[in-house]
Design goal:
The protein is of the alpha+beta class. It is built from eight helices and five strands.
Length: about 180
């Protein structure tokens, strides 16, 4: 197992949140979580494939890409991140998979078992039955501020546990990031 300084909360966020527009990656040397817009990733992949960008360790100057594709200057960092991903994917950079939707329901069901108020627990059990379960659960939980605090802490802990489990499945032990 490789020890990597990782922000477990960032890995948990990447595992939990999915978007068809973005992908998340982990640099297993630095522990950096890299979020890249898929269209930028595809553009960089295309430019490398057409020999418009050299294959090297460090990202080249992306000025010509910004000018040629008429991209805003602020996307230069995204282009560099996409380049690093393309050059090192499968090596020092690995894709972070997106979370499974079932986790939310499982988390809600397990949380309900920790709720001390039996009347509220019964109402929460009813709320998670059927379509729209997450919305009903959230409305009910957030009507009770103390329970909402407990739910947020429970959910965050569960997400970080899943992140640590995923990292271990990749042969990585997360160590606390300094700084």
């Amino acid at each position: 197992m490789k020890r990597v300084p990782v922000d477990l909360e960032m890995v948990a966020d990447a595992l939990t949140h999915s978007s068809p527009d973005y992908s998340s990656f982990l640099d297993i040397e630095t522990g950096e979580v890299i979020l890249v817009e898929n269209s930028i990733l595809n553009l960089v992949e295309e430019l490398i494939g057409r020999d418009r960008l050299p294959e090297q360790d460090e990202p080249p100057d992306m000025g010509f890409v910004i000018e040629e594709k008429q991209l805003p200057q602020w996307q230069e960092q995204s282009l560099q991140d996409a380049y690093r991903v393309e050059m090192h994917i499968g090596g020092r950079i690995i894709r972070i998979p997106t979370g499974e939707p079932g986790y939310s329901w499982e988390d809600m069901a397990e949380f309900i078992e920790t709720v001390q108020d039996s009347h509220l627990a019964d109402r929460l059990r009813d709320a998670i039955d059927g379509r729209g379960a997450f919305s009903r659960f959230k409305r009910l939980v957030y009507d009770h501020p103390e329970t909402a605090k407990e739910w947020n802490a429970f959910r965050e802990t569960r997400q970080q546990e899943r992140a640590a489990e995923w990292l271990e499945s990749e042969g990585i032990i997360a160590v606390k990031k300094e700084g």
